[in-house]
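Retro notes
What went well: the complex prediction finally ran end to end.
Inputs used:
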Amino acid sequence: MTTPTAALVAYKQKRRLTRSRSIKPWYRNGSLMAGIIIVGLLVLVAVLAPVLAPYNPITQNLEDAIQSPSPAHWLGTDQFGRDVLSRLIWGAQVDLRVGFLAVFIPFVIGSTLGAIAGYFGGWLDTILMRIVDTFFAFPFYVMVIVLVFVFGSGESSIYIAIATVSWVSYARIVRGEVLIAKKQDYVVAARLGGMSHARILVRHIGPNVLSQAIIYAMSDIVMDIMAIVTLGYLGLGIAPPTAEWGSMINDGQQFITTQWQLATIPGLVVVVTSLGLSWLGDGLSDLLSPERRK
Amino acid sequence: MLHRLRFIPGRLVQSIPVAIGVTIIVFFMARLLPGNPALALLGQHATKASVAALSKQLGLDQPLWQQYLIFLGRLFQGNLGTSITYQMPVTQELAQAIPVTLSLLGLALLLSLVISIPLAALAAFRPGGARDLGVRGFTLLGQGMPQFWLGIMLILLLAVGVRAFPVGGYGETAGDHFYYLFLPALTLGITMCPTIIRSLRSSMINVLESEYVGTAKSKGSYGAALFRGHVLRNAAIPTVSVIGVNLGFLVGGSLVIEKVFALPGLGSMMINAIFTRDFPTIQGVTLFVAFFVVVVGILTDVVYTILDPRVDLSSKERA
């Protein structure tokens, strides 16, 4: 499980502790390749869902309800007779889409505010960081669950809820990076050369600090997928007939004694997804910030 | 000793803006709800008269900042409103649920340490070795598992398969409680492990490379004695702050886990409240949890200072 704070701590430690390795071309980077293959396959499955899924994921077929795996239904059927494999495949579309899309808004808002706070400092920085501290007081799931309730159910309120909670991590990371970057010679030189603050921030500091935010974004995607799956499990996520991994686990839990695969397999898919994304993130961090490896 | 705790008043003052911010956010959550907040507080079945009365009582006809002050005033009196579903004060509801969640958290933390310390030591004694890789695999997996799913898997293995533990519930006596809490606490503890292991492992590696461990070794200390006497205590210090920072996460996780195991704690209270649209209860739980996280943050700093004589938080470096 990853949380903003856990991911933040992990990320800081990783930055400090990555051991020295010789610079390798990207395709020789094991975790990057493993990540690309797993995530690539999952995305492919999600995109090709209409072609790959053997059955319709939503149409009910009560005569075939709760079947064990068989040649006709490789992973069996659920309580409405829907093919579990087909629902898993279509679920990839929903869960991956939410995971990837939910990252963008907090990334942009958090990075921008963090960069401004770090660059200009002073009271602006103090106020922004107090706001960030306040948001950090709310545990991730508490805030997301309450906000989904407040904004009403549906995919768009999930995006808003996740954005409201997770921009703070980006703000902290980028602020820290900007604090270091703004003392570097190239920034001082640019300033002496008469460049405006906006231009320095966007053209010179931006590219140098964003790689850390991108690396964090990879673990954030995992967290967002966990959030959407958890919301689905609690019955607060994407509305029921749509195939979604979390609600599939919830549906399967009541048949745990007879058809254990119903709850187990969607969870395993989530595990594989987050493993792939973690490896992709590790690989990217090697690639994006080689100078951090001491 | 005491002079190093001088930072506490300052730290308390520092957390005042955060506490105020928390109340502002919780206050505005009610305003974000569609429709009249009085209606949201009273529920869908409220009569027109009672909505009008509460609107007046809450001062909904007054400017927003005055409404906020009224909200704050009620908060200081310990008044969190009345639960719509149970028609009793939210504070009373909280008082019943908090012990359950706190015992779950405590037991989870304990189990997490029991699992993490040996694994971290195993990994740290030869970084890059086979054991290190194995532990790394465990942390990767632990990170990738949805908490509630791990809970269901443990139910499947230890409650349905082996029948060693109950599937859910809380039991009647204190002994029962411990027995019923074990599986949910184990679930929560395992999900906490990756963070603790990673922190402990890296600080253990640092400690093992230090000169004082070299000295201890040259004086003949080895194995468990070396580990207990010299390595663990020093490596534990940074981990304390990591745990403190992540206790908020543990609280959030416990809410979901309670739902899986049908424990009558804060999480079940909140999620049930969500489904019955019982807004005062949601507000109460959210406020309590956020304040809990703030207080834990302060306590972490205190423990940190007590454990490590070198830390002096009253010095300037922190500001």
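What we learned: The mean pLDDT of chain A is 82.
What to try next: split runs per interface for comparison.
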